[in-house]
Amino acid sequence: MKFLKLILILSLCFFSCKQEKKEAKISDNVEVKIITQKLDNIILSSGTIHRIESFPSKYVQPRNVDVWLPDNYSKDKKY
User: How far apart are CA 52 and CA 66, in angstroms?
Assistant: First the structure.
């Protein structure tokens, strides 16, 4: 009788625990215009710093992002 109760309790626990995956649908087709500004008030040994304000992200709140570019950086060259 104890064995029957144990099987009943285990089966109830097994079937009552549903694991449904809830996935948030995030659209990848959103175009965002990113505006950068060159920071001139920072002293660097070489290169420049460009700031992107309120950089959008799927996973965290928008935040400021600083990007360092070397002196010989070219927009035309693929890195």
Answer: 6
Which pLDDT score, from 0 to 100, does residue 33 have? 80
Alpha-helix residue ranges (DSSP H) falling in the chain: 2-16
Q: Domain limits of the chain? A: 32-73
The phi and psi torsions of 57 (rounded to 5 degrees) equal -150, 155
pTM, full prediction: 0.54
Looking up tokens 């290169």, which residue turns up? 47
Picking from 51, 49, 53, the residue whose alpha carbon sits closest to that of residue 70 is: 49
Q: How far apart are CA 12 and CA 10, in angstroms?
A: 5
> Residue 37 corresponds to which tokens in the numbers above?
């500004």
